[in-house]
Amino acid sequence: MTFYIQPHQFRRMARRLAEQPQQRALGVNIREQDDAYVLSALVPGLKAEDLNIQILENVVSIEGSYQDADGEYLLNELPSGSFRRALRLPTEVEADKVEAKIADGVLTLNLPKAETARPKKINISLN
Question: 29-68: b or e for each residue (b if 16 or more CB lie within 10 Å)?
């Protein structure tokens, strides 16, 4: 089945989209493991130098910017502009041991929990 849109429909659609504020939220997934949090975010087309990641106590901040492409589009759904996301984790993390990587448009942060936030096993001595 072929789908055709008339030019006047594009103009009407473009006007509606231009009236709506463009959202630049960075969607993330966060998993908790015993000794770390693992954060994943989609960052298509971005490289390491396009991102600024900072950690202070238990707050992770991710900033970046997509290049704005010039020209007119019939449909423009790819991300553009800058974004910032700050996330408060349930416990503090060890900022000096955080590992970050980008592969196939996915940013992955391994955020080790601070030693004070990790569960401790207490051995019971027998008398």
Answer: eeeeeeebbebebebeebeeeebeeebeebebebebbbee
Report the amino acid identity of residue 3: F
Check if the beta carbon of residue 89 is closer than 8 Å to that of residue 111: yes
Contact 51, 84 (CB under 8 A): no
Separation between Cα atoms, residue 36 and residue 98, nearest integer Å: 9
- Region for 81 from its dihedrals, namely left if φ exceeds 0, alpha if ψ lies in -120 to 50, beta otherwise: left
Q: What pTM was computed for the model?
A: 0.71
- pLDDT digit string, tens, across residues 98-115: 999 999 999 999 999 998
- Determine the Cα–Cα distance for residues 16 and 23; give it in Å rounded to an integer: 14
Token pair, residue 81, equals 């502009």
Taking the C-alpha atoms of residue 84 and residue 57, their distance in angstroms, rounded to an integer, is 18
Per-residue CA distances from 5 to 1, 71, 73, 75, 102 (Å):
13, 20, 14, 11, 37
Q: Please tell me the predicted confidence (pLDDT) of residue 23.
A: 47
* Dist CA 91 CA 55 (whole Å): 12
